Structure formats: structure tokens, C-alpha cells
Amino acid sequence: MIADRLQQIGQQAINSVRGFGRAGLMLAGALIGKPNLRKNFPLLVKQLYVVGVLSLLIILVSGLFIGMVLALQGYNVLVKFGAEGMLGPLVSLSLLRELGPVVTALLFAGRAGSALTAEIGLMKATEQLSSMEMMAVDPLRRIIAPRFWAGVICMPLLALIFNAVGILGGHLVGVEWLGVDAGSYWSAMQANVDLYQDVMNGVIKSVVFALVVIWIALHKGYDAIPTSEGISRATTETVVTASLAVLGFDFILTAVMFGG
Amino acid sequence: MSDILIDIQHLSFSRGERQIYRDMNMQVQRGKLTAIMGPSGIGKTTLLKLIGGQLKPDSGNILFEGQNIPALSRAELYQARKKMSMLFQSGALFTEMTVFDNVAFPLREHTKLSESLIRRIVLMKLEAVGLRGARDLMPAELSGGMARRAALARAIALDPELIMYDEPFAGQDPISMGVIVRLIRELNNALGLTSVVVSHDVTEVMSIADYVYVVADKTVIGQGTPEQLRQDPSPLVQQFLRGEADGAVPFHYKAAAYEDELMELTR
């Protein structure tokens, strides 16, 4: 009974280590080697469009609303202490340090990550990857690599856009609607936001999240069991695993960056 | 140059617990159309993947032009693959490209030809399969038979030595079936290709093949020209060729005795 249980745990551990191994090999195969700019640049541009530009709408709308909600909630608390002048820093720091990178990564996992997993899983199921291999074209270099780089480039930019729109949303609610003084909204923000400590750390977070989300999405697709059930499971796993990984890494990074 | 393009020697392969091939030998003559037939589920597609180096055998050699495919380095394998091509059962066209770009894909990847030359080659290949007019369609707009022909045009784009067909006749209506049968035979003769056709469609295969291997029970059970094969004394070969439901290959999947199981229910 206990032996069975132990065996099960051991088996699961071995499987997850194997999964990490396969994911690592996939990424190494995709990224190591001489890049061919003439061939790869157009592929990258296409993926930047698919992964980045097409995610823009959801990022803009979410950023705006999260900024507005932050301002509304923050105002209600701050006004009790007569500190509504600090609304600017509250909104901007929350966004730059936490909400921007994290919510962007979660949305990105749902919007672009799941799409990538499904796309690659279906390419596998319809033998497109196999046939590419038989044509002596490495699917890792041709399919995985441009998508990986596109994700890593796009997500920090999307997070920055999210932050900017969020701050404007906060302005809309705080200043235009609730009547916080515009000068104090912006000048308090300017005085309290540090370029390195707040903005750069947010960008670093977002780069880490990008690596994690896109790697998980590509690996789940590439490793999917090539049936309709397998692909649907892989897509779900991408969103769940990537979201949990983002939250986990966020805690670690926050502890390192702002903990001490 | 030797007359044998592919020489499979003592091939054994298993997938997990299940053994698929045991000590199998097979040869494919250059310039000939060799067919591999057998009941479904015996790993005919697996054999093509072994030849293409996508899977590695447990033991044995697979010589392609004298090179042992499983022993090649990655770079050598990719070089060898430029000389072979494979037509997948589904066609496996790239869904995000037009038919034209699909056929141009291997040319753009492996040659430095100018776009105008590529255009000319692609149109020639599409003409050969009768789809020159369909060049601007997306794969989703093609019927199953057309998709397979487009994939065939892509497979011959680089003028390979060897072309492998995975179940080219499966799921085709009689007309597209006729078209594909004719195309396979004509391409083999006109381009001097070596063709390997994996199929279980006995009539079609027997009508075009130069040499036939019948694979069952993990190894080759019969071989020869279609004429020789019809005379083969093996009951298994005869059952397969005539399509009889019961015989050397039993109709029933392995099970406990019928009476015993029924009795158990009443108990």
C-alpha cells in the first residue's frame, strides 16, 4: 500500500523530470545554431504580428479597466486620510511593479499561449511537422524559434503598454471623475516612481514571465498527443501551468526585488 | 552505381512493449515501383518513418544509397533527406500557405534559385499533377484528392531519388483513385524516380507495382512481382490478396473461449 504510493510518487517525479528534459531539448534545438537572418526575419515579423499585435486589443482594454478600478478603490481608502494626492503613486506603483507584468502575462497565456499550443499541436496531428522534417527542414528552427523570440520580444512591450494605459485609466477616474488635482496626480507620481527600482524591475519581471509562458506554450504544443483530446488537454495545461508558473515566479521575484 | 537504392537488413523495431518488426529484410530496386502491402496496424507507416530516419530501429541496418540511415549524424541525415521525399496520408500541406507556396517551400528552403525560376518550376510540378489552376487556393479549399495531388507536387519539387507514398489510395473516390494510380506510375517512369508505396488496397497496388512485399506478423511473409505473388502458396498471402474475412489471420481478436465467457455471465 505504502510501497504503491511511493512508487506512484516516484513515477510522477520521473515523468516531470522527463518533461523538463524534453522541454529543454526542444528549446536548445530551436535556439542553438547559426541564425539565418534572410530566412528567419520574415518569419519573426509574421509571428510578432500574430503574437503581439493581435494581443493588443485585450491588453489595451484590460489595462484601461484595471487602471480605472485601481483609482476608484484607491481613492475610497485614501480620501479617508485626506491623502487622495497620493493616488498617482498608488496607481502607477501597483501597475508597474505587479499588475502590469502579472496581468499581461496571464492574459498573454490565455490569448497567445493557448493559440500557439493549439496551432503547434494541430501541425503535429496533421503531420505538418513530420513532413517538414522529411523535407530536411528542422521544425524546431522553422516553427518553434520564431514564435519563441516573438513572445519574448512582445510581452515586455505589451506590459509597458498595459502600464501606460492603466495610468491613463487611473487619471480618467481619479482626476476627471473624482476630482483629484491633476497636478498632484502627476507630480506625486513623478516624485515616487523610480526608474530602476520600479520601471526596470517591472520590465525584468515581464521578460522572465515571457520566457516562462512562451516556453510552456510551445512545449505543450510540441509534446501534445496528436489527437483532438490530446490537443485540448495540452491547451488547457498551457493556460493552467503558465498562469501558476507566472504567479509563483512573481512571488520569488518580488521577494528578491522588493523584499529586502 | 548499385541497383539497390534501399537495403533493409535484419531490421527489428518495437514500440514500448509491442514488437513491430523482427529480423526483417527488404530491398528496393532503383527506378522501380516497390509496394509494401499488409493488413492495417502492422506498422507500414512506421517502416517509412524508419527509412526516413524519423524513428530509430532497435537493431539492423537501413542502407540508403549505401549509407546506414540510423547511424548518420543529424547533418548527414538532413542531407540524405533532401534526396527522398514522402507523401503523407493526409497530404500534410502547410495550412497557412497557398498551394503555390507549399510547392515552392522546399525550393525556397534548399536552393538559392531566383523567384522567377522557382515560379517556373512550381508551375511545371503543378501542371504534372493537373493543379496549375489551383495554385492560389489555400489547402482548406481543396478536396481530399486534390490535396494529395498538391502534396505530390510538393514531394517532387526537388526532384528526389526516392518518393515514399503512405497509403496514397486510402479514402479516395474512384476517380481520384484512378488519377493518383496513374500519377504514381507515370511519375515513376517519366522522372526515373524510385517509388515505395505502402498500401492495403490490393487491386490498385497489384496493377502498378513492379515488385511487392507482403508484410504481416512482424516480417515479410511473401514477395515477388504481382504475377509471382498470385501464385504464392502461403495461405496468409492468399487470404490477404483475396480479402477473405477468416483464415490464417483470424477474424476474432485474441480472446478467451467464447463458451467459457458466456458461461461466466450466467454464473
TrEMBL record, chain A:
Q: Which family does the similarity line name?
A: Belongs to the MlaE permease family.
Q: Which UniProt keywords apply?
A: Cell inner membrane, Cell membrane, Membrane, Transmembrane, Transmembrane helix, Transport
* Spans traversing the lipid bilayer: 48-72, 144-168, 199-218, 239-258
Q: Name one GO molecular function term.
A: phospholipid transporter activity
Q: Which domain of life is it from?
A: Bacteria
Subunit composition and interactions:
The complex is composed of two ATP-binding proteins (MlaF), two transmembrane proteins (MlaE), two cytoplasmic solute-binding proteins (MlaB) and six periplasmic solute-binding proteins (MlaD).
Listed name of the protein: Intermembrane phospholipid transport system permease protein MlaE
Membrane-protein topology: Multi-pass membrane protein
Q: Does the keyword Cell membrane apply?
A: yes
Q: Where in the cell is it found?
A: Cell inner membrane
Q: What GO CC annotations are associated with the protein?
A: ATP-binding cassette (ABC) transporter complex
NCBIfam families this protein is in?
MlaE family lipid ABC transporter permease subunit, perm_MlaE_1
* InterPro entries linked to this entry: ABC_MlaE_roteobac, MlaE_Permease, Permease_MalE
Query: Function of this protein?
Result: Part of the ABC transporter complex MlaFEDB, which is involved in a phospholipid transport pathway that maintains lipid asymmetry in the outer membrane by retrograde trafficking of phospholipids from the outer membrane to the inner membrane. Probably responsible for the translocation of the substrate across the membrane.
Q: Please state the protein's primary subcellular location.
A: membrane
Automatic annotation (TrEMBL), chain B:
Q: Does the keyword Transport apply?
A: yes
Residues in domain ABC transporter?
6-242
Q: Which CDD domains match?
A: ABC_Org_Solvent_Resistant (cd03261)
Quote the SUPFAM superfamilies the UniProt record gives.
Answer: P-loop containing nucleoside triphosphate hydrolases
Q: Which UniProt keywords apply?
A: ATP-binding, Nucleotide-binding, Transport
**Top-level taxon of origin:** Bacteria
Pfam families named among the record's database cross-references? ABC_tran (PF00005)
Asked whether the UniProt record includes DNA repair among its keywords, one would answer: no
**Secretion signal span:** none
Example GO molecular function term? ATP binding
Task: Fetch the SMART domains from UniProt.
Answer: AAA
Question: What is the name of this protein?
Answer: ABC transporter ATP-binding protein
Species this protein is from: Alishewanella agri BL06
